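debug: dumping io for the single-chain case to check the tokenizer round-trip. Nothing else runs in this session.
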Amino acid sequence: MASDSISVAPISALPRPDPPALEAAPSKLAEQVARRLEDKIVELGWPVGEVIGSEPDLLAEFGISRAIFREAVRLLEHHSVARMRRGPGGGLVVTTPDTSSVVRAAALHLQFDNAKPRDVFEARSALELKIVELATENIDEDGIRLLRATLDQEAAIQASDRLGTHDIHLVIADLTGNPAMRLFLEVLTKLTVPPRTEGVEEVRERGRHVRHAHDRIVEAIVAGDVALARHRMQTHLVAMSRYLTDPGPHPVE
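debug: decoded output
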């Protein structure tokens, strides 16, 4: 009997159309070259730090002018895909993508759609509840050590009268083993950070509540109790929602 399960092909295995002939318009030409270079990087397995070609070699490969090539490189640099390294042994070097461009693009779309901070936080909350379920199901000794080390780091930050970070939320997302969830949570987290308007005493008090909530969430994850971890995360998210006073979603520097 045939299985009813559905298999999903990896992104790298999805069919790609044959690249069209390069157009003559300089701006379009640079965009097409940038896309082809991105495809090349993906096909190579995104080898961060490696040179995928010198400027002369890539100029010859694409049959374009130096001006068009450098505009394509600027596009790649803007999206943190690659950068040019000058000098002996230089060339186009593959880099690690930065989420800041994704955050800014998401913020612009949300502002255009007149999304309210609460709308964005609802999306984040739904994602975080699923994340904490998966992280609890997948927890192992390495994950436990990572969670506890992150809590220790958070405690050190709070001891200096700073509110702390959202690192524990992202670490929990890492433990799902799902990079898409991790990326989307990072974007939504940066779009839902409340403004820092409290005085020192307020920061200390709020920090104590946040640390207590994080400790309890981690405690439930370590115990492997999915229902309890979800409940404690939901309680924490409800408390966090009270601080959403921004007039609109925007990236936090």
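debug: round-trip ok. Residues 100-241 form a domain with the Four Helix Bundle (Hemerythrin (Met), subunit A) fold (CATH 1.20.120.530).
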